[in-house]
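For reproducibility, we list the full input for the 3-hydroxybutanoyl-coenzyme A complex.
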Amino acid sequence: MSTRISVIGMGTMGVGIAQILIASGYEVMWLGHNKNSVEAGLAGIDASLHKAVKKGMMTEQKMTDAKGMLSTTTEYKDIEGSEAIIEAVKESVDVKIDVLRSADRHRGHSVIATNTSSISITRLSEALEDKGAFLGMHFFNPAPVMKLVELVVTEHTSEEAEGRARSIANACGKTAVRVNDYPGFIANNILIPMLYEAAILLERNVAEKEGIDTIARLGLNHPMGPFELADFIGLDVCKEMADSIYDATKDERFKTPDSIKGMVAAGKLGRKTGEGFYIYKEGRQGA
Ligand code: 3HC
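The corresponding predicted structure, in tokenized form, follows.
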């Protein structure tokens, strides 16, 4: 019998994490908030699995086998008996604490991990009875493609919990890197100042946005330029991450540039709203 992992949350990251687990042979119990989120989650994972087949990352047969490993529920009691529980609900301390508390009641002996970009793992650990079983597993978007997981440990995280989380990440083909709990961990501390520096250079009219993106792609070998990437992540998500790091550190590098603040206020959030730095038509970059 295969090992069972529970995933909580059916947004972009929940979909991606559930997908990599079922594609790696884990049975997944996928918990959604209500019937509507379950339906949306299933549509999302179906589309993402088809994308993986189209890209030659898996065969049609493997996709069918993977789908057979997935069960959905809206009841916390169904997560009982899991090797691990991975929470990937929206990036809000209150919502995450609420969900983690409910999950903890049905945890049994499982490790419990949160996927967050910048919320303090130590703060979230307050929701749990046994803080030793808890850590952060920070996956990157798109989760099926990105090879890294930051394993974020607190002073309480046990070696056993860290080891089990690492084994799961490795079994999914990811490299796991241990990081001590710190505002923004490592990757987003590097990423946000880079994205914001690009926005400031654009505000100063040093080059056009297309030029700056080309420079990062061809001169630095980044797969996407900073504006393409910011639009891909979502400008609201970038700002939320930056605000969270700024609140904790008061580091000026995390103060959101006016141009990005303006776009967020205007609802121009990037690909998901059809406009950010660029305009998108059917997911493609337009004029
Ligand atoms: N399964 C599901 N979706 C996939 C996929 C797969 N196997 N492979 C690609 N995709 C998605 C992409 O996300 C993209 O989304 P879209 O449909 O909404 O446009 C789409 O497929 C198209 O991909 P393309 O074929 O156009 O492009 P490539 O496959 O060549 O590369 C990419 C796409 C992997 C996104 C590449 O450009 C890349 O690596 N970009 C950088 C991504 C990055 O830096 N991510 C980290 C973000 S920061 C983060 O996650 C931290 C968090 O805390 C915010």
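The pocket of 3-hydroxybutanoyl-coenzyme A is lined by residues 48, 51-52, 55, 57, 117, 140-142, 144-146, 188, 191, 223-224, 229, 233, 237, 283 (CB under 6 Å). The chain has two domains: 4-180, 187-285. Both points were considered when choosing residues for closer inspection.
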